[in-house]
Amino acid sequence: MTTRLDEFRAYRERMNARIAEIDHLGIKRFFSLDSGAYRDGALDGRTKELLGLVASTVLRCNDCIDYHLDQCVKAGWSDEEIYDALNVALVVGGSIVIPHLRHAVETLDLLRAEQ
């Protein structure tokens, strides 16, 4: 059975490959900057993914939420830790974040079902 996460991952991979074909310097630089932001530095990459999840939730980007939740699960964050981070997003973002909180919880359930 194909889940919405499978479809999301396939679409993201396909479109990132297509964007790479464009060969535009500014776009390449931004993608490199984005990747580099999540590498270990003063903060470890694992923590940065959790920060990315919170920012994505506050910004109400479900694709970003899915991506960062996938990375957070791979990095070993527990459900309780993720819920705590999502609570921060809810407090910062307010009630308008609630639909995206629902999306995040559903995504986390799908990710755990894969394990």
TrEMBL record:
Entries under InterPro entries matching the protein: AhpD-like (IPR029032), AhpD_core (IPR004675), CMD-like (IPR003779)
Keyword Oxidoreductase in annotation: yes
Record key words, sorted: Oxidoreductase, Peroxidase
A GO term, aspect molecular function: peroxiredoxin activity
Ranges for domain Carboxymuconolactone decarboxylase-like: 29-106
Entries under NCBIfam families matching the protein: ahpD_dom
UniProt-recorded name of the protein: Alkylhydroperoxidase like protein, AhpD family
The organism of origin for this protein: Sphaerobacter thermophilus (strain ATCC 49802 / DSM 20745 / KCCM 41009 / NCIMB 13125 / S 6022)
Phylogenetic classification of the source organism: Bacteria, Pseudomonadati, Thermomicrobiota, Thermomicrobia, Sphaerobacterales
